[in-house]
Amino acid sequence: MSSATARSTPSGRGASVGPSFPLRPVRPAAATGSGRATAIGPGRGSRPPLALGAAAGAVALMMLLPVGYLFLRTAGAWDRVAELLLRPSTWAIAGRSLGLVAAVTATGVLLAVPLAWLVTRTDLPGRRFWAVATVLPLAIPSYVGSFLYVVAAGPHGLLQRLLAPWGVERLPDLHGFWGAYLVMTLFTYPYVLLPVRAALQRLDPALEEASYSLGRGRWATFRAVVLPQLRPAILAGARLVALYTLAEFGAVATLRYETFTWALYVQYQVAFDREAAGGMALVLVAAAMALLGIDALLRERWRYHRDTPGTPRPPAPVPLGPWRLPALAFCGLVVLLALGVPLAVLAYWALRGALEGDWWVLLGPATFNSLAVAALAAVVTVAAALPVAALGARHPGRWSGLVDRVVHIGFAIPGIVIALALVFFGIRFLGPLYQTVAMLVVAYAMVFLPTALGPLRASWLQVDPKLEEVARSLGRRPWQVLTTVTLPLVRPGILAGAGMVFLVTLKELPLTLILSPPGFDTLAASVWNSISEAYFGQAAVKSLLLVAASAASVGLILRREGEWEP
């Protein structure tokens, strides 16, 4: 029988799931191909090769460029920055931003965990349909979703028109916290759903069967055996949701909820106060680092590994019985709100937009540009993530932990700050790259590297280090071992990471608006311009194309699901 171990609690005692499940402190481990974990030291790994450490350090240094830009912008104006940061209005914006982050992240977890369990472990009718439908909201950009909800459920939206014969003259206003909370939750919970589903598919059912044999019920077994093993996956998804929400611009701007990102945009684009905006952005970076610090602490406490190989067999589906209808209603409500309403509104406005002239002939170049730049970004980002993933998987320690935290900074900094940082350095030091696709691709890589790092590092951990040692003992050089042994084995993580980067690049807005070369139109920028100019029909057609392209990358991710977990 296999057993699970977890880090002990601060009192030195771990939680127990029954007499047969003693929980002991574990040391950082590298996963082996047999399913066993090999300890490599208490809190630090072996010294990494110089080339690997230097490559990962170079990636981390690139990620610090926006922070360096912020310090340069605020240098000499610390008095003004301090005065701005001490204003009650600044603290109010901070409270609103962190409140939205906490609410969206917590609700996303509460939605994703039951959905993952229902579609992977139960006899829910139509499981395959729900498995796909619950992930597809990931294909809808949050700024498009916010626009669609304002059109559909605003005070005088489509829903109000349908209800007008029954005397409904006005619906509640979606602008503000509740609208931002609803939209951000509906379109970000799949970031938690995907890793939790992958983790559930890889759990050893023998642990649950042993718990049942000790007299525990299904709920007690889930709470005491399954949920603790899901914590690392939940944490990985929650980290992405929190950082994404912290840096979101399009949705909060559309719904008029003032967060740090919107305030930064106003300072940059309206007040032209770069020093004040830089100070606010530094506070945002500090908040992101605090979130990453909490994440690192929880990851240390919630680390698990398998002592024995376990069994790859799938568990028997749990019969829902009388809970079948409530489960169907729950899945149906989530899919209706996150997918059905947006697609229905898109279809309605697309039918109207198709009759508004011959503007659609311009969609071809915008679609091609979007797909091409997203593919380039996926390749560059995965290449940059490779040394970081290898360092974290093979040589865990202080250096790899520092690099890991630094590379996540870009995901939390608003795109407008990263774009202006690249403009600042590009004009002064990289003139030939200024206003080129290359600079746009670098910006995408800086922001979305964490989305590729999770699945890539997980796949690297699943490669038995002994295979690499055998290859080296046979005379293979390190680069030959990498290309002929390691990379083929981590290919599932590479493809999953590339699919995630391709997806989020298609939807990215601020970077695209600021850094796109002259005449280089993309679907995301075109959608935003149409929404801003109130051409809702055109925006709907373009959004449908964007959602279709995004859905294709979601399909790739789903095909690779189960082969990796964060």
TrEMBL record:
Sequence ranges assigned to domain ABC transmembrane type-1 in this UniProt record: 94-293, 367-557
Region of interest (Disordered), residue spans: 1-42
CDD domains referenced in this protein's UniProt entry, alphabetically: TM_PBP2
Ranges of biased composition (kind: Polar residues): 1-11
Annotated Gene3D superfamilies: MetI-like
Annotated membrane topology: Multi-pass membrane protein
Domain of life: Bacteria
Pfam families, sorted: BPD_transp_1
Alphabetical keyword list: Cell inner membrane, Cell membrane, Membrane, Transmembrane, Transmembrane helix, Transport
Spans traversing the lipid bilayer: 50-71, 91-117, 129-154, 174-194, 233-257, 277-298, 327-351, 371-393, 405-427, 433-453, 535-558
InterPro entries associated with the record: MetI-like, MetI-like_sf
Family from the record: Belongs to the binding-protein-dependent transport system permease family.
Protein name from the UniProt record: Iron ABC transporter permease
Organism from which the protein derives: Thermaerobacter composti
